[in-house]
Amino acid sequence: xxxxxxxxxKVIDDAWQxxxxxxxxxxxxxxxxxxxxxxxxPAKGVIVEIGSFKGRSTVMLAKVTSHYGLxxxxxxxPHSHNLSLxxxxxPLPSTFDEFQSSLRTAGVSEHVEVHxxxxxxxxxxxxxxxxxxxxxxxxxxxxxxxxxxxFSKFVAQNGVIAFxxxxxxxxxxxxxxxxxxxxxxxxxxxxxxxxxAWAQYSPANASRYAESRQRLERRASRLMPFVQSGQQLHGxxxxxxxxxxxxxxxxxxxxxxxxxxxxxxxTTT
Length: 269
Hints:
By secondary structure, this protein is an alpha/beta fold. Helices cover about 40% and strands about 15% of the residues. It has helices at about 10-20, 30-40, 55-70, 95-105, 120-125, 140-150, 170-180, 210-220, 225, 235-245, 260; strands spanning about 45-50, 75, 110-115, 130-135, 155-165, 185-195, 195-200. Helix 3 links the parallel strand 1 (about 45-50) and strand 2. The radius of gyration is 17 Å and the shape is globular.
């Protein structure tokens, strides 16, 4: 059984109060999901966040991990906008000062290990085990794949990998999730929470979940042709994208159903 702390709902409520005023694109149900993962993923290691922006997800993760004494959140971001599809070609100021301010305001600075760098620079010398890999950086295909390739080899058995914006109009997260997570026989439970795509790394148990992964892959892969260009969608193409997105199954992950979704730390076939 996955251990779910008895006070988890209150802890996440409190963490959300500290998170909700931080600028960013993470929705409340998404923030609560990553908070739950921060507390309950049944694996050893650190949390790695790729893409911090102004600290919205960082604050949520750090508030939860600091409460339970689960070690620092490793926050990796160059704090420039040049990797964003939304702002491509438009020079904008660094987000680093606002990021630091968000951490100070939330009282979590000492619980965050900050790397003001590209993920590829950090991964080139990385040697620590990871229990939760949160990918919300460069949303191009090349960027999302590099983020996964650089750190996935360090994800512990029964650890979790999650991508933000996998159901939004970006080419990288959904393609990498389909091709590298759903198609190989390496992952157990998988799912979507709003725009977050997540999966539990468990090669020893993956075959038991092959059918459910395949069903999810068939639905999710239909989105890939719509987003591959990275351009805004219009007219009938936008409507078709929204229909196919609606058809992708989404499952709420809560403290009540977490134990039925995630495998415990030492589960084997």
